[in-house]
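Query form — protein Cyanocobalamin reductase / alkylcobalamin dealkylase

QUESTION: What is the three-dimensional structure of this chain?
INPUT:
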Amino acid sequence: MELQVAELKQKIEDTLCPFGFEVYPFQVAWYNALLPPAFHLPLPGPTLAFLVLSTPAMFDRALKPFLQSCHLRPLTDPVDQCVAYHLGRVRKHISGVCIHPRYGGWFAIRGVMLLPGVEVPDLPPTKPLDCVPTRAARITLLEGFNFHWRDWTYRDAVTPQERYSEEQKAYFSTPPAQRLALLGLAQPSEDPSSASPELPFTTLPPKKPQNPSRARGWLSPSISPPASPGP
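ANSWER: The C-alpha cells for Cyanocobalamin reductase / alkylcobalamin dealkylase are given below.
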C-alpha cells in the first residue's frame, strides 16, 4: 500500500474504528467499472475512496450514544444520521492539531518571516518530534480538540513545562470583538442613539464611565481577571 494511502487510512481508522466501523481503500474506477454509467461517480478513475463498514459493535459504540446525545433533531433515519455524523468527524479530525513537545497545546503558530535574498540551500529540514506516539493518545487528543476544546484539557496531551496564565485563558476565552473592552481599551460610543436603524446590531451605552485604573489593575498580576466562560 502506498505511504499516502496508508497514512490516510490510519487517520480515518483512528477516528472510526473505536465506534465499530472498518474502512478499506479503493479507486473510483473500480467502483465505476461494476455499474452502468448512470450510477458512476463523477470523479477521475484514480481518485482515492474508502469503503466504510459497520460491525456488530457499531450499535453499542456509535448508534446508542448518538441517540442519547441528540446530535440531530428531528431524527428521521437514526442509522444514516449516525453514520453521517461520524463521517463528518473524519473530515474534522484529518485537519489535525499541533502539539509542542515542551508546551503541549499551550502555544500558537503566529506567523512566518520570509527573508528575500537570503538563500540557504544546505539548511537541513528538521523532522518534528512525535510527542503523542500512541494511537489511543492521538484519538483522545483529536476528540478533545474537535469537541471539547473549550475546557482546555486537550492542551495537556503532553505534560507542559508552562501553561497559559488565568489572565491569558480569560482573554482567549473572550470573543475577539469583546477583547478590547476586557482590557479596558475599548472606546465608548459618542452617541449611541445616532446608530443607523439599518445596522444589524444595537449599541448599548456604558452604565458607568470607563475606569482607567480598573483596566490597568486587571492587567496587573496582583489582581485576578474575570472568570472565563465555562465549556
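ADDITIONAL NOTE: The first helix runs from residue 3 to 16.
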